[in-house]
Design brief:
Blueprint lengths: L12 H5 L3 E4 L5 H12 L6 E4 L3 H10 L4 E3 L4 E4 L11 E5 L5 H13 L4 E5 L6 H5 L2 H4 L4 E6 L5 H6 L6 E5 L11 H8 L6 E3 L5 H11 L3
Parallel strand pairs: 1-2, 5-6, 5-7, 7-8, 8-9
Antiparallel strand pairs: 2-4, 3-4
Length: 218
């Protein structure tokens, strides 16, 4: 690599690990994202995921890869656009509230583009426990469950106490002042009483979806 180069894409990741390269767009300039997309265009047989792409960066990617799959809520793009045929166990993504949807959808789409069947269950936070319990049949079909929650972050522990599969907890930065940008939810999840809860970083829907896809692999 020269001093002017900006990236060294991992074209062999799928061969080595069984899962595609992912490009984290936040923090990169629009021009850097566009240049990376141009390199991706030269490898049409290599699956590449773009995460945390705001509108400006997503447009730069689509200028180069006009057929790329794009979900604006999740800020998620994938190339080639077609998802692999789903295999393995079901991944269920539970979203505590509508404000958690960007993170939950990032997890959902990551799991799908890594080849797992995946379903999204929305607005099942503990403030309305009846809504959580009404989805028990869906949760109990899963091979892995991702739970995205902010505020007090109590939902993953609740769900983990009702199912037999692993739960991947992803704290979100949703909440009022004392939520400290997701730190309160993170600490609650790390201290979950129910066993079988793994925790990823704040707002890391990609990491949660990836881990769940690996857990649910055939």
């Amino acid at each position: 690599m020269s001093d002017d180069d900006i990236a060294d894409l991992d074209w062999q990741r799928a061969d080595r690990r069984g899962y595609p390269e992912a490009v984290y767009c936040e923090g990169k300039s629009v021009e850097q994202v566009r240049e990376i997309a141009q390199r991706v265009a030269e490898k049409p047989d290599v699956v590449t995921i773009f995460t945390r792409a705001d509108d400006e960066r997503a447009e730069a990617i689509k200028e180069v890869l006009p057929d790329a799959f794009h979900d604006e809520v999740a800020r998620f793009l994938a190339w080639p656009p077609r998802r692999p045929e789903p295999t393995g166990k079901l991944v269920v993504v539970a979203c505590a509230g509508t404000s958690d949807l960007p993170v939950a959808r990032e997890a959902l789409l990551t799991a799908r583009h890594l080849g797992r069947p995946a379903e999204l269950v929305v607005d099942v936070g503990i403030a309305g426990l009846h809504r959580t319990l009404s989805k028990l049949d869906v949760f109990r079909k899963a091979g892995a469950i991702v739970v995205a929650a902010g505020m007090d972050g109590a939902l993953p522990g609740l769900i983990a106490g009702l199912v037999s599969c692993p739960v991947v907890a992803v704290p979100t930065s949703v909440g009022y002042g004392a939520s400290f940008g997701g730190v309160s939810a993170l600490l609650t999840m790390l201290n979950a009483c129910a066993p079988g809860v793994g925790v990823v970083n704040i707002d890391n829907g990609y990491g949660a979806g990836h881990l769940a896809a690996q857990i649910a692999a055939p």
